[in-house]
Design goal:
Elements: E1 8-11, H1 27-32, H2 38-54, H3 58-72, H4 77-91, H5 98-109, E2 113-121, H6 122-132, E3 136-145, E4 148-155, H7 160-173, E5 181-184, H8 190-193, E6 198-202, H9 206-215, E7 218-220, H10 234-237, H11 241-267
Parallel strand pairs: 1-2, 1-5, 2-3, 5-6, 6-7
Antiparallel strand pairs: 3-4
């Protein structure tokens, strides 16, 4: 590859750029917009809390994909874009790691092309990219017909598929992968990280941390903001405060029981988008 070939910086999104889940972040706003029921809003908030505590297994990621795809079938694309655009500053912007903002800016100042690559739906990732001044998004895509989502996932970027997307994008735009960078928190993204000359583990899960240490990869910790486990306010989903508190306690207790029973093996299988 020529010494003058362009350099890319590929960023995973959830728990790498933002201290939350982009797939679950707008649940409350979709409820307020009349697009989902109180029950569904509650389920999304609970799933988000569990995700922030222990991440998701590969199987859980697939289940989440299927559940969300079914939920959004029939939604108007314009409504989704309007709600995410209007609520981004309140919902997602406070969860963006300051360290990630600075790193993205540093890459842009160096003349590198910054790409957000995510297993989350592109329609949700794009407004976050705009907030960060990132021009390119490569993410999971869903079919649209007559201005509405059909519920069909046409491109799902997880694991090997994400790595293949990086390889394809680099080939199309003639990037020098040996000189390029990639950032992720999850062991599912090891295939992507192995493609570049500068892989960086950010807030890595146990399996990625182990792999990074074994291969001499750089590891970084982003702390600002601290990840928040936000459960819905009782008035927001129309259930009693006692129910909120009870289910929250059960969710947290279940996490620690699972950790105690599952041990290291289960920890190694946790992933993010």
């Amino acid at each position: 590859m020529s010494a003058h070939a362009p350099v890319a910086a590929f960023f995973d999104l959830d728990k790498t750029i933002i201290a939350t889940s982009s797939a679950f972040a707008f649940g409350k706003e979709f409820f307020k917009g009349g697009m989902i029921t109180r029950q569904k809003a509650w389920e999304i908030s609970l799933s988000k809390a569990q995700y922030m505590l222990v991440g998701q297994s590969s199987e859980k990621m697939d289940t989440t994909r299927d559940t969300l795809a079914q939920m959004v079938a029939g939604w108007e694309v314009e409504d989704i874009q309007r709600i995410t655009r209007e609520t981004l500053r309140e919902v997602v912007a406070p969860a963006i790691y300051a360290e990630a903002r600075e790193l993205i800016a540093a890459h842009k100042d160096a003349g590198h092309h910054v790409i957000i690559i995510s297993a989350s739906a592109k329609i949700l990732v794009e407004p976050i990219a705009q907030e960060l001044g990132v021009d390119t998004v490569v993410a999971t895509e869903m079919a649209v017909k007559d201005g509405r989502l059909t519920g069909e996932v046409t491109r799902y970027l997880k694991g090997g598929a994400k790595a293949e997307a990086v390889r394809q994008f680099a080939a199309e735009h003639h990037f020098d992968l040996d000189a390029s960078y990639a950032y992720s928190d999850s062991a599912t993204d090891i295939p992507m990280l192995e493609l570049v000359g500068h892989p960086v583990a950010v807030n890595p899960d146990r399996a990625l941390k182990k792999h990074a240490l074994a291969n001499g990869w750089q590891a970084r910790t982003f702390k600002n903001p601290e990840p928040l486990i936000q459960m819905p306010h009782a008035r927001e989903v129309g259930v009693g405060a006692g129910v909120i508190a009870g289910v929250t306690a059960l969710a947290v207790a279940g996490v620690f029981i699972a950790r105690a029973v599952g041990g290291k093996g289960s920890d190694d299988k946790r992933h993010s988008a």
